[in-house]
Amino acid sequence: MPLATQMCRQIFHFVAVLCRSEPMLGICVVGGMCALLSGITFSVTAIESPENEFMQSCTRLGGPKVVMAILCVLYLLKLESAGEIKRSPRTCYPIPAEAGWPLRGRSLKGLSNITRVEGSSKDGTYCVRCLVWRPPKEHKPHHCNTCQRCVTGFDHHCGVFGRCIVNGNMVCFVTLIGLLFTGMCTAMVAVSTSSGSYREA
């Protein structure tokens, strides 16, 4: 098989895998909504309401909103390990005797997290899946079954971005939702204003 054909197949496979991934879905959703809402606002304002000062100011705010949405998405996707409890000697030890299931070949079914080791200073729970000590309940520790890792400050796993939404990236998530509603309101105001000017003409 020629080298060019092999390279094309590998590129096509990479793009296909990327398009099926949750982060790519998030990029497409945010990019599509930015393009759609900005396009509606810009085109309607430029064509039908060029003299409307309010709409011109809304249009000028469109660019910064798109930039902010892009930055929020990059932050969400960059911080893949936001809130993740990473494995280290500090988080893994002491290993409870009950957690010796990998050595004995036991299944994870029916196993529950271990609360405390006698004589240990560890306060939280020991996750038998990640094999790490998690902080107490007030830090909202959680084992995400989708990501297969323990995080702190857990809110939910976002299927659009493929990330756990935790305290560390909640600001970006809420900002994206706020920008979506702001963009929709701006587009609706632009359309309704242009419709009124069109009827008057």
UniProtKB/TrEMBL annotation:
Keyword annotations from UniProtKB, A to Z: Acyltransferase, Membrane, Transferase, Transmembrane, Transmembrane helix
Membrane-related topology note: Multi-pass membrane protein
Cellular localisation: Membrane
Swiss-Prot/TrEMBL catalytic activity: L-cysteinyl-[protein] + hexadecanoyl-CoA = S-hexadecanoyl-L-cysteinyl-[protein] + CoA
Stretches assigned to the Palmitoyltransferase DHHC domain: 122-190
Signal sequence, renumbered to the chain: none
One of the Pfam families matching this protein, by short name: DHHC
Principal location listed in the UniProt entry: membrane
KW Disulfide bond (keyword) present: no
Family: Belongs to the DHHC palmitoyltransferase family.
Name used for this protein in its record: Palmitoyltransferase
Organism this protein belongs to: Prorocentrum cordatum
Organism classification: Eukaryota, Sar, Alveolata, Dinophyceae, Prorocentrales
